[in-house]
Amino acid sequence: MSSTPPRLDRRPLLGALLRLASQAMTEQLARWLASSEFCDLQPAHSAAIQPLWATPEGARLTDLARASRITKQSMSALVDHLQKTGYVERVEDPQDARASLVRLTPRGRAFGRAVRAQSRRVEVDWAGRVGAHRVDDLRETLEVLRTSLLASEQ
Q: Is 61 part of a structural domain of the chain?
């Protein structure tokens, strides 16, 4: 019987690594926002902008909240600010006149293009640090995981 205790694996787990990478990207986004023409936004607003970018026809508030994995109340606060500052508009849902859709305005689409360009600059920086193939592999892996998770929620 060995008296040597087993070695503990002290490396960060995947969740911690993903959180740290996300925080680094969010910090860079916050610095960029503060010095951009979109300084009236915070990184948190991306929770509404990103799913709207993917659905140009608009989406219901509940669908935006579900897509971003936040509460309907939190999404409502984000959308209220985005509407007041001209990034989104609420329009009647053509499928149900009692409901409304949120969609990007021209200013919201301009922000979407600009924030995507900023994100690409971060990705280029990361590719310079670890290699473009690793960033591409990471993106591909995360996309496969995202697709799988979305499919299991259906």
A: yes
Q: How far apart are CA 27 and CA 107, in angstroms?
A: 23
Strands annotated E in the chain? 88-93, 96-104
Determine the length of the chain.
154
Closest residue by Cα to residue 61 from 46, 44, 45, 77: 77
Computed on alpha carbons and rounded to an integer, the radius of gyration of the chain in Å comes to: 19
Cβ atoms of 71 and 65 closer than 8 Å:
yes
Q: Is residue 31 one of the residues assigned to a domain?
A: no
Number of domains in the chain: 1
Structural domain boundaries enclosing 135: 39-153
Query: CA-to-CA distance for 145 and 68, rounded, in angstroms?
Result: 16
Quote the mean pLDDT of the chain: 94
**Structure confidence by residue, pLDDT tens digits, 15-39:** 999 999 999 999 999 999 999 999 9
